[in-house]
């Protein structure tokens, strides 16, 4: 039982356990949850880990409760992989719901992204809808620049992409940039530029004339818009 543990103190202890194993965030938490970036704020004490998630982490890595509570004894009870300790059943099956759920952030994208690495805000809830369960997040969109493709108040479903050389031209993307592009965060249609090191960002609304040219090296995060929930459907 973990009821007696102070969950506000668990984050830094999980970080210590992770570093003892010489593992990255992805390696340490990837078998437990789909979205591992949020664990950075948990480890740094900026967010309190949930009771269920804390139990999953402790069980997965077989972390000693005595060590977590009093820093006594060995931090790990064994090095046997969790799936073998469960009679061959992988922890991903036990936590299948965690992998199916995609976070919804009820806030504008330029506020959600307080830095390049993670969604900084706490999700309002999680969505389990199979066609989009491989996506990264649900977000509301505001403004008229993407009319009629998206109406202000619609919810877009985005999926992070890692290769800027593979772009579906003419499709909508959520683009997150650094200081080189004034930290612009916007949803626009993407088109090729004559200079292959640049991208053309274009509004869907013809009343918003003029393209925005952005260097690829200025893009720190790129998400393709996979779908939407129209405001009139809510």
Give a verbal description of the structure.
This protein is α+β, with helices and mostly antiparallel strands. The chain is built from nine helices and nine strands. The protein has a seven-stranded antiparallel beta sheet with strand order 3-4-9-5-6-7-8, with no helix packed on it. A two-stranded antiparallel ribbon has the order 1-2. A hairpin with a 7-residue loop joins strand 5 and strand 6 (185-192). The protein starts with 9 loop residues before the first helix and ends in a 5-residue tail after the last strand. Residues 83-99 have low confidence and may be disordered.
What characteristics describe this protein?
234 residues, alpha+beta, seven-stranded antiparallel β-sheet, 9 helices, elongated
Q: What's the SSE pattern?
A: HHHHHHHHEHEEEEEEEE
Strand arrangement in the largest pleated sheet: 3-4-9-5-6-7-8
Helicity, in percent?
10-25%
Low-confidence stretches: 83-99
Shape: elongated
Task: Give the strand tally.
Answer: 9
Mean pLDDT: 82
Largest sheet: 7 strands, antiparallel
Could you give the distance between the termini? 41 Å
Structural class by helix and strand composition: alpha+beta
Percentage of residues in strands: 15-25%
Number of helices: 9
What integer value in Å does the Rg equal?
A: 21 Å
């Amino acid at each position: 039982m973990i009821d007696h543990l102070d969950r506000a103190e668990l984050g830094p202890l999980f970080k210590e356990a992770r570093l003892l194993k010489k593992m990255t965030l992805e390696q340490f938490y990837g078998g437990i949850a789909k979205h591992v970036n949020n664990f950075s704020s948990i480890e740094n004490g900026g967010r309190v880990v949930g009771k269920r998630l804390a139990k999953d982490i402790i069980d997965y890595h077989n972390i000693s409760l005595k060590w977590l509570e009093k820093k006594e004894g060995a931090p790990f009870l064994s090095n046997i992989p969790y799936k073998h300790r469960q009679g061959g059943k992988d922890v991903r099956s036990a936590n299948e719901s965690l992998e199916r759920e995609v976070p919804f952030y009820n806030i504008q994208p330029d506020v959600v992204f307080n830095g390049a690495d993670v969604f900084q805000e706490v999700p309002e809830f999680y969505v389990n809808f199979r066609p989009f369960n491989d996506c990264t997040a649900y977000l509301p969109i505001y403004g008229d620049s993407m009319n009629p493709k998206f109406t202000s108040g619609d919810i877009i479903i985005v999926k992070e992409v890692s290769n800027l050389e593979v772009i579906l031209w003419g499709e909508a993307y959520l683009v997150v940039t650094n200081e080189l592009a004034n930290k612009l965060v916007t949803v626009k249609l993407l088109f090729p530029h004559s200079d292959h090191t640049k991208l053309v960002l274009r509004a869907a609304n013809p009343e918003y004339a003029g393209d925005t040219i952005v260097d690829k090296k200025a893009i720190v995060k790129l998400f393709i818009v996979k779908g939407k929930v129209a405001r009139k459907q809510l």
